Amino acid sequence: MAKVSTNISIDAETKSKAQVLLADFGMDLSTAVNIFLKQMVYEGAIPFTIAREVPNDITLAAMREAQEIDKHPEKYKKYSDVDEMMEDILGEI
Predict the structure, then answer these.
(1) What is the rounded CA–CA span in Å between residue 44 and residue 60?
(2) Could you give the CA distance from residue 23 to residue 17 in angstroms, rounded to a whole number?
(3) Which of 5, 10, 22, 45 fits 15 for a cystine, CB–CB 3.0-4.6 Å?
């Protein structure tokens, strides 16, 4: 297949660091870009996840609980330390 040249803009520091890393792998930047593009075409997608940090369900539930406690602190018992809480939970040991 015929090769074509493509110009891309990369900040100098990123390019330099990538070239050092790629040299350890025994390849140049052009080879790495070709690998990336071929993998993208093969998968029909960008070959890694691009996503915002989204809290999981457990974290979201904890966040909602914390908001509820802030809104209605009178509904919840407070402890001055862990020993006091454990004694309340387990009883006198």
Answers:
(1) 32
(2) 10
(3) 10
pTM of the model: 0.53
- Residue with token string 């330390």: 81
Q: What is the pLDDT of residues 21-66, one digit of tens each?
A: 999 999 999 999 999 999 999 999 999 988 878 889 999 999 999 9
**How far apart (Å, rounded) are the C-alpha atoms in residues 88 and 84?**
6
Q: Identify the DSSP state of 80.
A: S
Amino acid at 47: P
User: How far does Cα 58 stand from its chain's mean position?
Assistant: 16
Residues 6+ apart with CB under 8 A from 31: 22
